[in-house]
Specification:
There is one protein chain. By secondary structure, this protein is mainly alpha-helical. It has two domains: about 110 residues, DNA polymerase, domain 1 (Orthogonal Bundle); about 160 residues, hpI Integrase, Chain A. Strands 1-2-3 form a three-stranded antiparallel beta sheet. Strands 4-5 form a two-stranded antiparallel ribbon. A hairpin with a 4-residue loop joins β1 and β2. The longest helix has 20 residues.
């Protein structure tokens, strides 16, 4: 077959356009971010035409990416899986040799490598929420962390919420897949669900809507539930806020890492994720583990958090085996 020459930048543009209607906005942004490293590396290696890619070239990129980014095995595999999908797309447009994607080697993960254990624990979550209720009541920070902790909602789902998705009288919030408006859910239609809310949560949302939420619409004319004066809060802004409020120096007077709060880099607005104690991606894991430890039935947890029991078992449930045994004991006393 005859390959058609293509520059790395053009290949990336075509790939992103191809995936735009297939994946959530957040997923597309993640792919763009990962593949920009590859495009930059191609330039450094004077690779101006991707027709010339080989299995050895892709392996050399893998080694460079691992070392340059100081990546864990999990992160390295995530990066290379995206490369493999990208290469497979290039095969479909006659840009690289057929079956080149099969030569993209992935690191082999052990069971312990594949499972992340970092999470926001219940005690810290309640400390932060107590502080927010007392000093930042009904602020966007208060609303975001409450939604994240009380519902285990994904950031993408929080980003997609509109004001009318919340029903104060019936006390629920609905997640809706809106592909045509550029606000899809990660799990698409299967991510749609009704989430019951407590009296306390409804009071908080009512006060946010009545007193604090800016009166704005997004580019599609929709009213986002989570908003700033500029419009709908972006995924990255939601993540940044959770990083910010889970730093100990935010909700206490000190630092458990013996840092000088006045000079610590993590107090800088653009560096809050560098605090060793901040927990943005791990609130969901912490909430699910807490519900399970409180004997909430696994099916209820699965439905509320929109995650399968198998995935809960592998990636979210951080209870120790002995803790699970003691919980079972409470149900077996009469057997």
């Amino acid at each position: 077959m005859t390959l058609e020459p293509i520059a790395p930048e053009r290949a990336l543009e075509l790939y992103l356009d191809h995936r735009r209607n297939e994946v959530a906005v957040q997923t597309l942004q993640s792919h763009r971010s990962r593949l920009r490293y590859f495009v930059g590396w191609c330039h450094d290696q004077n690779i101006e035409n991707l027709n010339n890619l080989t299995g050895r070239t892709l392996y050399e990129y893998r080694i460079w990416r691992r070392n340059d980014g100081d990546l864990s095995k999990v992160s390295e595999k995530t990066q290379m899986v995206t490369i493999r999908v990208f290469i497979k797309f290039l095969e479909s447009i006659d840009a690289v040799d057929p079956d080149l994607h099969t030569k993209v080697q992935l690191p082999i993960l052990s069971a312990s490598d594949a499972v992340r254990t970092e999470m926001l624990d219940a005690e810290r979550a309640e400390q932060v929420l107590t502080y927010l209720e007392m000093y930042r009541y009904a602020s966007v920070r208060h609303v975001i962390l409450t939604l994240a902790w009380r519902t285990a909602m994904r950031r993408g789902a929080m980003y997609a919420l509109d004001v009318h998705d919340y029903d104060s009288e019936e006390q629920y919030i609905q997640t809706v897949h809106r592909k045509d408006t550029g606000i899809p859910l990660n799990n698409q239609e299967s991510g749609e669900r009704y989430v019951a809310l407590s009296d306390e949560m409804c009071e908080l949302l009512d006060d946010w809507l009545a007193d604090q939420r800016p009166d704005v619409t997004d580019d599609a004319g929709r009213e986002p539930l989570l908003a700033s004066k500029q419009g709908r809060l972006h995924h990255s802004t939601i993540q940044h806020i959770i990083y910010e409020v889970t730093r100990p120096c935010f909700y206490t007077d000190g630092c458990p890492h013996d840092r000088d709060v006045e000079t610590c880099e993590a107090t800088n607005r653009n560096s809050v994720s560098r605090c060793p104690s901040s927990r943005s991606p791990h609130v969901r894991r912490g909430a699910i583990t807490y519900w399970l430890s409180e004997d909430v039935p696994e099916r209820v947890v699965s439905d509320r958090a929109n995650v399968s029991p198998d995935v809960i078992e592998k990636h979210y449930d951080q209870r120790g085996e002995r803790d699970k045994m003691e919980q079972r004991r409470g149900f077996l006393d009469n057997i």
